[in-house]
Amino acid sequence: MALAPEQVRQLIRESGDKQQWHADGRSLFLVTRRERGFWVLHFRDPREGGAIRNTSLGTADAMSAAAARKAARSLMTALDEGRPVTIGTRKARGELFGTAAATYLDNHADEWNQRTRADNKALFAKYAAPLADKPVTEITADDVAETLRPIWDGPGNNRGSRLRRLMFGVFGAKNVHPNPAAWDDGPLPGLLSRKRPAVVNRPSMPYAEVPAFLKTKTDSVEDRAGRFIILAAVRRKEALEAKWSEFDFANCVWHIPAARMKMKRPHRVPLTDAMIDALGKAGEPDSYVFPSPRTGGVMGHKALDKEWVPGFTLHGFRSSFSTWAAEQDKGRKYPFEVREAALAHSKATPVAAAYDRSELFEARQALMTEWSKFATGN
User: In the structure, what pLDDT confidence band is assigned to residue 347 with cuts at 50, 70 and 90?
Assistant: First the structure.
């Protein structure tokens, strides 16, 4: 987007010690630092096999934005037509993308769980491998688009968008300007579809069928884990990584640490008799409640996959629970806020979260007790 004269002056006035690049179209940039501005053209030089180059066109004091655009067009036209031009160019240096990506994944590893770390590494290995031996400063938006295209389903929460965000982080960590993986104010929306995929809800079992379904399950560790997840209305990860030290049986409370919660806030779950029965015999404080029968470690997610609940998903039982609760006395018995608190959903806004810190624990105790009785057929 072209910068207006007042925008140019404001960006220069507000510049600090850190150099910042502001896009003015696709290849022209206003570079600001310490209340000074320079016009820089970021382009492919056909004389050097399309290598990425930067050239300064002049200072913002001596050259207006319109004049910089005219100079940039003239220079690019001359290069495209093969006419001799005399320009001072600088080859932006940078480490190989593969090295930069590996470093980025290592530096941010503690932000993801083990499964997400593995998924992120696999995304780079499978789809970004052609870029691995290319310097980060020579990778263009076209290269990024070509990398993303095989798995691109539009912006959102999908593999393509996740890989784009990871690539954006890699380039940002190496101070590559402009960032070729940028979506906002970048060229990618012109190279990839901007259509967002339709939201598809996970298949959930009608709540009326839950009691009969649970009666088909045995006392195996897999079945007890699945039954506990349904009765507690929690996410799979929260339960499968649970350890005995998290359970306060004297007060019938399960304390889930923030690190395992989606919203990164600790969560208390009221325990019912049916939930405690699903836990089985207590073990050592630091041992897993639902260990893998094969390894003794964390039970894999596939143990409770499609075969465990044919036609539906385990996560979908959270919807079954919420729908059941909403229909009790037409929603008056368990209001929306209580149901959302039981599901550990985030508050509507950050301001609401800051002021409304109630856990509605007593109301949730009643809700979970009645849900356990219904789901187990009692």
Answer: low
Domain positions in the chain: 5-80, 97-191, 207-375
Report, at the CATH architecture level, how domain 207-375 is classified.
Orthogonal Bundle (1.10)
pTM over 0.90: no
Q: What is the pLDDT of residues 54-79, one digit of tens each?
A: 788 888 888 888 888 988 888 888 87
Fold of 5-80: Double Stranded RNA Binding Domain (3.30.160)
Q: Which CATH superfamily is domain 97-191 in?
A: Tyrosine recombinase, N-terminal domain (1.10.150.130)
Q: Is the dihedral of CA 23, 28, 31, 36 positive or negative?
A: negative
Whose CA is closest to 229, among 314, 324, 345? 314
Please check whether residue 308 is in contact with residue 205, taking contact to mean a CB–CB distance below 8 angstroms: no
DSSP state, residue 177: S
Q: How does pLDDT run across 141-160, given as a tens digit for each residue?
A: 899 999 999 999 888 778 89
**303, two tokens:** 């143990």
Q: φ, ψ for residue 235 (rounded to 5)?
A: -80, 155
199 CB contacts (<8 Å, ≥6 apart)?
A: none
Dihedral angle sign, alpha carbons of residues 280, 226, 110, 346: negative
d(CA 24, CA 178): 11
Q: 244-262 pLDDT, tens per residue? A: 999 999 999 999 999 899 8
**Which strands, in side-by-side order, build the sheet including 267-270?**
247-248, 253-256, 267-270
Mean pLDDT confidence for 215-223: 95
Burial class (CB in 10 A: 0-12, 13-18, 19+), 264: exposed
What are the CA-CA distances from residue 286 to residues 17, 114, 229, 239 (Å)?
49, 19, 20, 14
The rounded distance, in Å, linking the Cα atoms of 265 and 263 is: 6
